[in-house]
Amino acid sequence: MAYALQQLINGITLGMIYGLIAVGYTMVYGIIGMINFAHGDVFMIGAFLSLIALSGLASLGITAVPLALAITLVFAAALAALYGWTIERVAYRPLRGSFRLAPLISAIGMSITLQNFAQVSQGARVKPLAPLLPGGLVLSHGEGFAVQLSWMQIAIALTTVLCLGVFTWLVTRTPLGRAMRACEQDLKMASLLGIDINQTIGLTFVIGAALAAVAGLMFLLYYGAIDFYIGFVAGVKAFTAAVLGGIGSLPGAVLGGLLIGLIETFWSAYFSVQYKDVAAFSILAITLVFLPTGLLGRTDVEKV
Amino acid sequence: MSRPLLALAGVNTFYGAVQALKNVDLTVTEGEIVTLIGANGAGKSTLMMTLCGQPRARSGQIVYDGEDITTLPTHLIMRRGIAQAPEGRRIFPRMSVRENLIMGAESAGYRDYDADIARVFALFPRLDERQSQRGGTLSGGEQQMLAIGRALMARPRLLLLDEPSLGLAPLIVRQIFQAIRALNRETGLTVLLVEQNAFQALRLAHRGYVLVNGVITMSGPGAELLARPEIRAAYLEGGH
């Protein structure tokens, strides 16, 4: 029981990271109907930017952990947002109106470009980071197994909830969010109402990339090691989460992320760590075959 | 004669290799209601959309209020005081009625939009009752009212209405046409109206154009077109 509770805590933590990345996939899909395969690599770039910021701050003598983390978060999110905007501008916008596969192929190219860029500029070896927030709360001692909720896990949960809260407010309550939803529902009509759709799409990439960078920072803190390849696996899992939740649905992306995190964690705990990715990707295949609209995806028929 | 608010000169529009508009000339003067009638597929909606830059005119010139808008991006055209209630209504299905209306205020920069919403609700009380209902769940007539209301939220100088009567009960059609006339009389709103319902459109409009296979074949005052035998034969026989 204690062991299962621990897995639940670990799974939710991991799921939050996946959920934050999945939001970016689902947002871009909703608005331009394209899977942004470079999104996972923006997450990886965000993790590297975080590592650079943390090292830089440490060498400047800023060692107060909450302050350093806050500065790192803003730095990584801002620069990753710039990456997101640039990727859209350079690799996708010129292909809008082209055949459907063109931006998809361009996205794969972008993904490889970012991976290689990180590999060349940061080296191919795994970069470690010493734990910044050691320790935590011990929830129970029963059965010779201590259930622990680490400070890191609490920090990840709080940050995720905060980010998603701000994001939800942005989408549901602000003119930008309304413009994004309008573009998602009818791009042409949105432009007929005076919405600059290029700008709105660009900002969608900016927001998605910023959230991915937050996830990158949390991944770095949680695992304490990153390399140029982490974007691929985490990206595909977050994509799976978005599909499981129902691609295009924002709450679905978060729910899907949590489920994938839990499935992966419990699978590793009770069956086999080596096959944990198989479990996650089987979910992708099963969802696509039996539940193509996902858990919270839209099936409603609209009047024409 | 005063400078027209909108003037199309020699406009040609293509869908791929298919030419949808052929050398179209058309003018709309401030304060006028102008109607464009024609059969299905004649190119009426294409003309409306070409004005807004989707698709772009391949050649010719579109001048609005003295400015060449032929190659201007769509959102900038719409920000100059043109609003369209397009073919198929294109209501945002997963937004509430109120949010759909607020979207309409985007190009006017959300100035006084509470007052504008009140005005739209006064014009279409049905929308007031359904403020928080999702656009996609409205009936056809309600969606049409919403599409027109949304266009009015932009505070347009030129209102483009694409088949507002399509698929609606006669009573609602009359209501909508009355609303158009009232807006024109009371606020001087300029209207370009595309209609299949030629009889009512020509009675409402100051002037009319007839579009056949992408070519303007006739134009003149509404009452005059209404009296022409070839118009009666092609568009008015049977019904009404």
Q: Would you spell out the secondary-structure blueprint of this structure?
A:
The complex is a heterodimer of chains A (304) and B (240).
Chain A: H1 2-32, H2 39-59, H3 65-92, H4 101-122, E1 127-128, E2 136-140, E3 147-150, H5 151-173, H6 175-185, H7 187-192, H8 197-223, E4 225-226, H9 230-245, H10 250-270, H11 276-290
Antiparallel strand pairs in A: 1-4, 2-3
Helix pairs in contact in A: 1-5, 1-8, 1-9, 1-10, 2-3, 2-4, 2-8, 2-9, 3-8, 5-6, 5-8, 6-8, 9-10, 9-11, 10-11
Chain B: E1 6-15, E2 18-28, E3 33-37, H1 44-51, E4 59-64, E5 67-68, H2 74-78, E6 82-85, H3 97-104, H4 113-123, H5 125-129, H6 140-152, E7 158-162, H7 170-187, E8 190-195, H8 198-204, E9 207-212, E10 215-221, H9 222-227, H10 229-236
Parallel strand pairs in B: 3-8, 3-9, 6-7, 7-8
Antiparallel strand pairs in B: 1-2, 1-4, 4-5, 9-10
Helix pairs in contact in B: 3-6
Structural class of chain A: mainly alpha
Which architecture name of chain A does CATH use?
Orthogonal Bundle
Order of helices and strands of chain B: EEEHEEHEHHHHEHEHEEHH
The number of distinct helices of chain A, counting runs of at least 4 residues, comes to: 11
Give the overall average pLDDT of chain B: 92
Alpha plus pi helix count of chain B: 10
Domain unit count of chain A: 1
N-C termini distance of chain B: 35 Å
Give me the Rg of chain B, rounded: 17 Å
**What's the CATH H-level homologous superfamily of the domain at 1-81 and 194-240 in chain B?**
P-loop containing nucleotide triphosphate hydrolases
Unreliable stretches of chain B: none
Strand order of the largest sheet of chain B: 6-7-8-3-9-10
Radius of gyration of chain A: 19 Å
Oligomerization: heterodimer
Architecture of the domain at 1-81 and 194-240 in chain B, CATH level 2?
Answer: 3-Layer(aba) Sandwich
> Helical proportion of chain A?
over 70%
CATH-defined topology of chain A: ABC transporter involved in vitamin B12 uptake, BtuC
Give the overall silhouette of chain A: globular
Decide which structural class fits the backbone of chain B: alpha/beta
User: How far do the termini of chain A sit from each other?
Assistant: 53 Å
